[in-house]
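tl;dr need the bound structure. longer version: we got a ligand (magnesium ion) that a collaborator sent over and nobodys looked at where it sits. i said id run it. heres the input, straight from their email, havent touched it
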Amino acid sequence: MTPPPDPAGSPPALSVRDLRKTYDTKVEALKGVSLDVAQGDFFALLGPNGAGKSTLIGIVSSLVNLSGGEVRVFGTDLASDRAAAMRLIGLVPQEINFNMFEKPLDILVNYAGFYGIPREEALVRAEQELRRAHLWEKARMMSRTLSGGMKRRLMIARAMMTRPRLLILDEPTAGVDIEIRRGMWHTLREINAAGTTIILTTHYLEEAESLCRNLAIIDRGSIVAAGPMKSLLARLDVEGFLLDIDGQLPARLPAIEGATLSAADDHTLDIEMPRAMDLNRVFAVLGEAGIRVRSMRTKSNRLEELFVRMTGDNAADGTAQVAPEPTA
Ligand SMILES: Nc1ncnc2c1ncn2[C@@H]1O[C@H](COP(=O)(O)OP(=O)(O)OP(=O)(O)O)[C@@H](O)[C@H]1O
Ligand SMILES: [Mg+2]
C-alpha cells in the first residue's frame, strides 16, 4: 500500500504557513498561502502572470521579506535561523545572471568560494556538475559563447555547487525551444533522482505534467488547487478534439449523445466528449453523416484545461485541496 510521504518523522523539504506579502505599493501578492513539499518531491508551482509565484520563491530564498506567515526548510524556521535554512536551498532565478566574460569553471568555483567551499573541493564539484550539465567541454570557454540552452544548464550547475537539498527554479525554461527544454528536463530528473527535492515554477504546463509528481496552482495570491498531478488530472473528465475534415462540413452537424459538436471552421470539427466515451462510436456517427475525418488532434493539453478551470473566477473557492501523493 502507499508508504508514508517521508521517512518517519522527517519534516517536509518546504513548509509554508499562511504566507502573506503586501508590497509597498499595497499590492497583496500573497494572501495567506500554505503548502508542504515533501522531501524528494518534484513539485510544480503553476499560475498565470502576476499570481505570486516569484514572490513566494523570493520569500523562501530570502530575497523578499514576508509580511506574515511562516516558512520552514527541512524543519528549520527561516525567521529564526535564516543562514541555516539558506544553506539547504539552491536557487535558479529566471534571468541569466552570471558574468558572460567569465568561464563556466570559474563561475562555479567562485560561486562555491562565496559559500565558503574550499577551492580544491570546489574544483571537484565543478567538474561533476559541468559533466552532469554536459558542459565539461565548455568549462574553459568564455560563457558568452555558450548557447542559450547551455547558459541555462550552467545556471543549474551553479546552483548545485552548494549541494542544496532543495533546488528551486523560477521558470527555468522560459523562452527556450522544446529541444533545449527536454535536455533540461533530463538534467532535472537526474538531480531529483539523486535525492534533491525540486520545486519549479513554469508557464509550460506540459513541463509540469511531464516532470512533477505534485503541484499547486496559485492565482491572485491564493492556492486554488494542490495535490498529486495524477489526482488533479483524473478530475478532468471531458476531452476536446479538433477533427480535420475532408471537404466541407455539412450545415447541419449530426448529434452525438453526450458530446458537443461545433464547427471551428468549414473544415474543422470541434468536439467535446466525456473521457470515457468510445471514439469508435463518434467516428461511426460522423461516417454515417458523410463526414470523413482526415486527422485529429487534442484541443488542449489536459493540464492546460485544468489550469483554466481552477483559475477561473468560479473555481477560486479554495476547495480544490486533495491529499498529497507519497514520494518515493
Ligand atoms: N517588487 C515589487 N514591488 C511591487 N509589486 C510587486 C513587486 N514584485 C511583484 N509585485 C506584484 O506582486 C504580484 C505578484 O507578482 P509575482 O512576480 O510574484 O508573480 P508571478 O506569479 O511570478 O508572475 P509571472 O508569471 O509573470 O512571473 C503582481 O501583482 C506584481 O505586480
Ligand atoms: Mg514570476
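gonna send this back to them w/ a short note. The first strand starts at residue 14 and ends at 22.
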